[in-house]
Structures are given as C-alpha cells and as structure tokens.
Amino acid sequence: MKKIIILGAGGLGRQVLAQLQVDYSHGIDWVIGGFVDERGPEVVSESLYYPWLGYPEHFEPGPEHLFVVAIGDPSSRQRQVKLLLDKGAEFVAIRTRCQLGTRSSWGPTFFGYDASCGVDCKIGDFGFIDQETMIGHDVVIGDYVHIAPRCLLAGYVKIENGVVINSGAMIARGVRVGEGAVIGMGAVVFKDVPAGATVVGNPARVIFNKAL
C-alpha cells in the first residue's frame, strides 16, 4: 500500500488533501500519510486528522511513499523538492476530474478540479495548475510553474520554468512568458513577457523586472 505525502501544509496543502480524498485517477491503491512542511507541526490543523511528518531536510522517503507538491512559491517549491529528490523521493501527478488532450504529456504536477488542456501539450514537472484553468492546444509549460484558478492559456503559448500566473489571467495565442515571470490577477497578455518581469492590467504592462 502506497502512502501519499503532501509537501506543504498551507492552503494549497488543504486543497490537495480534499482532492486526494476523492481521487482514483492514478489507478493505484494508497492511503494519505500526512504532511511534510518546513514550517513545523504548528501549521497542520488538528481538524485535518493527518499528522505533520517532519521537515523536508529530515524526512526520509521510503519505497512506500509518493509525494504531491502543494507549495505556492516556485523557488521555495524547487528548493524543498530538491531536498527530497536527493534522497530518492518519488512524486506523482494528481489529475482528478480533468480533461487532458490527446498526445499531451505531463510530469508529477497537481491539476485542480476541472482543469483542462488541448491536444499536443507538454506540461513539466512539479507544477500546480489550479481549478478550472483552461489550456489550449500545443502549449508548453515548464517546471515549477504555478497557475491559479480560472486562467486561460490560448494555443501555442510557452510558459518557462518558475512562472506564476495569478487568478483569472488570460494569455493570448503564441505568447512566450519568460522564466520566473509573474502574471497579475486578471491580466490580459498579448505580448511576450521577459524573464523575471511582473505584468498587470489589460493589456498587460510590465511594472517590475527583477532580472534588470
């Protein structure tokens, strides 16, 4: 029997837990083991009925463990995932009640309820794609990407590693979003976004670029 371990016990962790409790899409028998979180046991509410199991740097993954990422900040997510990968941890995709297109592929990424993608998409590792996000055909999404609820990515969009796309954002056909960029809530993006830039508004404009 496999044990699912949730990496991150905040709001996303609680959301992942709720979805795991009804998820059968990955086709194996499992139980929920608990949470690993670098902030310590106090972040795990007793009302969740699952324990804090340790810090990422101290927890020792076993062959019975499967991990799911539930950390919002991509840089923090990458750091904590690496700590566990270096010790042989195995991560799994969760895709409850989703529609993922023909010839599309994805790594160990979490898909919220009713997320969808078109045909011939490539979705990377350790991402978090939240509820009701719609991804068009031929979209490429890198690793450690966070997409909040109800976003829209049109066809041929390319999202590089570590991008954050906030709720309700829309990205037009063929746009490229550079590594580490942030798309603001409700932004409508018609042009390529430089690496490290933060864009907001309709049409979206750059308000900050940490790469400069």
Automatic annotation (TrEMBL):
InterPro entries named among the record's database cross-references: AcTrfase_PglD-like (IPR020019), Hexapep (IPR001451), PglD_N (IPR041561), Trans_hexapeptide_repeat (IPR050179), Trimer_LpxA-like_sf (IPR011004)
- Hey, where's the site called Increases basicity of active site His on this chain? D138
Tell me the ranges covered by the PglD N-terminal domain, including all copies.
Answer: 3-82
Give the residues the record marks as binding acetyl-CoA.
H146
Q: Which Pfam families match?
A: Hexapep, PglD_N
**Which CDD domains does the record associate with it?**
LbH_AT_putative
**Which sites bind substrate?**
G72
Q: Where is the active site?
A: H137 (proton acceptor)
Identify its protein family.
Answer: Belongs to the transferase hexapeptide repeat family.
**Protein name, per record:** Sugar O-acyltransferase (Sialic acid O-acetyltransferase NeuD family)
